[in-house]
Amino acid sequence: MTTIHNIIVPGVGGSNEHHWQSWLENRLTNCSRVQQDWQQPILNKWVEQWLKTIHALDDNASLQIIAHSFGCLTSIAALNKYPEIASRVKNLILVAPANPIRFGEIGFSQNNENSYFEA
Question: What is the pTM of this model?
């Protein structure tokens, strides 16, 4: 039987100890959490941190990605950018994906000329 490694991918704010992702993380075995600058949702930087978390694991590990909000956008962008990792993903759980219109290349859309929705 293949062991699945669980990857928790929080959204903006990072999912404090009372958040469902933290609750789940404390109950799952073989689990890692992607760490980010929680108040700076810059997709390229978040994708790189996501990738570092994956690369820290055994290259043969099957993955279950459990993402929330901006973590959903991060996970989809990362899997699109690194398709070789997608073959390892056995389950992709996206909960309450963030609206891309709220974000742009330098963080929240109010700080940007364009949003990801327009890209």
Answer: 0.87
Average pLDDT over residues 30-37: 94
- In what helix (H) or strand (E) does residue 7 lie, and over which residues does it extend? strand 4-9
DSSP three-state, residue 42: coil
Residues ≥6 apart with Cβ < 8 Å to 91: 4, 64, 65
CB 65 within 8 A of CB 90: no
How far, in Å, CA of 113 to CA of 11, rounded? 22
The whole-angstrom separation of Cα 81 and Cα 12 is 21
Task: Give me the residue label for tokens 């600058």.
Answer: 37
* Amino acid code (one letter) for 73: L
